[in-house]
Structure formats: structure tokens, C-alpha cells
Amino acid sequence: MFKDKLNYKILNVLMVAVIIYIGILTFNVWGSIIEKMISIIIPFFIAFGIAYSFYPIVRKLRNKGLSNTVSVTIVAGSVIFIIAALIIITVPLVYDQIVLLSSSIAEVLKDLSTKLEIDLGDFQASINGIMDSLVASAGKYLSDGTVNLVGRAVDFLSNAVIILILSIYFLADMERIRGEVKAILLRTPKRRRAYEYVKTLDKELGQYLNGLAIFIGIQFVEYTLLFGIIGHPNWLLLGVLASLTTVIPYFGGLITNIVAVILASIVSTPLFIATLAICLIFPNIDGYVISPRVYGKTNNVNAMWTIFAVVAGGALFGIVGIMFSLPVYIALNCTFKFFEQDIYDTVSNIKDGDKAKKKELKN
User: Fold this and answer.
1) Quick one: which of 273, 185, 265 has its CA closest to 233?
2) pTM check: above 0.85
């Protein structure tokens, strides 16, 4: 009797509520533990993502007859050489251009204040203070080297070296990892569908990551050369900014263009016109010619949903959310398209079942 009267649904809901309440009360205890675990796991995720991005290059080299060891050595050595060369060549130039940028911003504010008859005294002083602090900090990073700076530099270099070593290990072992995942998914015929889904997702994300790496390089070379040819004083800084903001769809290029045009406006009218022409013409070439060739047709995504993903990612997780918004959206979009028919079939079966039950009740 008692067993029949006991409502297990309400009991389960109450148990879940109690568990959640206890979890909230003890958040300070287990929250710090989870945070430390995440900090330990993150380098492995980053390293695996890097290895996953460069694996297609290794596979192409292997298809040409090279061994896995030689292919991984070539890819890893090339990446290390390029990064080292960029640091040695660009860091001093970027510092010089940051100093130039500081003085340029001060001139822009002064020019606006004069032309528009607006008192920007306090605002200008604040901006100048921020830029002076930025220049001073950059100078310390490049020359002085305090104890705190050395400690942070050691931590950063240690993490970078750890991620680099892990990336090489993952890259060398990627074929075996992929083979084991495939074997697990194909162990039973029922898992064939799961394997097809993982294979499709792997293709979509792989193409996006490879295309992104290539596109970043193209953007750096393209805009560094363009702004250098027209004589823009911040040509290298703008080239670096254009390549880094590539990870932000739509808005990244706009940020670079606005900065380039504003800085050119205080130098000369011909430079302003040339910069404006670059900012109007070449983003369209990138969007309609270069980008489709780099990414291919499979990563064509809806512009509205892409913007929504960027805004949502930024609101929830800041700059990290913005950087990962597009690959997450691609993964979700790929998942929905793959299981779209299954979802519709499930909904149809539920509706048909409801109709059948209603007919039985009527009869």
C-alpha cells in the first residue's frame, strides 16, 4: 500500500535539489579543486589542439613516402623556426611602433579637440597615461627585467615549452590515437553511426583549423606588405593586428581597419586615402576570394548565427569565448545537420504514438 502511494518522481526531484544545494554550500571546497584540475588539464587540451591542427600536414608528408618521425620532425622544426624568427624580427619593431602609436593617439585627440572645439583634456591625459604605461611596460619587458618580470617570463616560457613538447608527442602519436578511437567506435555494428558522426565532425573542425592557420599567415603577409607599400608608419603593428584578429569573425578585420584609418588621418591626406582604399577593397577580396578558397565550401556558415556566437561567447567567457565561438558553432551546426533526420523521425514517432493513444482512448 505504502509503496503504491509513494511518488518517486517527487522524491527524485527533491534528491536532486538537495544535491544541488549541498554543492552550492560546498562550492568553495570543490570549486578550487576543479579550478586546479582545469589548470592542469588545459595545457594538454591546447597541445592536442595544436597537434590536431598540424596533423594533416604530417599526413601529406607521409603520403609522399616520408616516415612518421621525419614528417613530425619537419613540421615541428618548421613551426619552431618560424615562431623564433618572428619573435626575433618583430618584437623590437613592434615596440618601436607602440611608441609611435602612443604619440599618434595623442595627436589624434589633440586634432579632434581643435577641430570640434571639444575639451578632451582629462580624457587625453588618461589615454596618454595608459599609453605611457604600456610603453614603459613594454620597455621593461624588452630591457630592464625586474624580478617579477623574470618570474612571469619563466612561468610563461615553462608553459610554452611544456605545451610544445606535449604537442610534438601528440603529433607523433596522432595516428595511433585516431586509430584507437576508430577501433572503439567500430567495435560493434551499433556504433557505426557514432563513427560516421565523429568522422564528419573531424573533417569539419580539421578543415576550419587548417584554414584558420593558413588564413592568419595570409593576413599577416598581405596587410604588412600593403601598409608597408603605402608608407603607413604602423605597418608592422597593423599586420600583426590583422592576423591576430582573424580569429574574431567579421569584427576582427573591422577593428584593424578603424585603427589604420584613424592613424593615417593624422599623417597626411594621401596616406588617409590610400589606407581607406585598402580597408574598403581588400576585406572584400579576403571575404569573397581568399577565404572561400582557404576554408572550402563545407565551412560556409550563416552570418547571423556566427555573429550571435561571437557575441554570446564574449558575454559568457570574454576573449576566450570569442576565440572559440566559431569552432564551437561549427561543431554544433555539424552535429545538428548530421542528426537532423534522426530528430525529425523521433518527433514524428512521438506524434504518431500520441495519435495512436488518442484513438485507443476514443475506442
Assistant:
1) 265
2) no
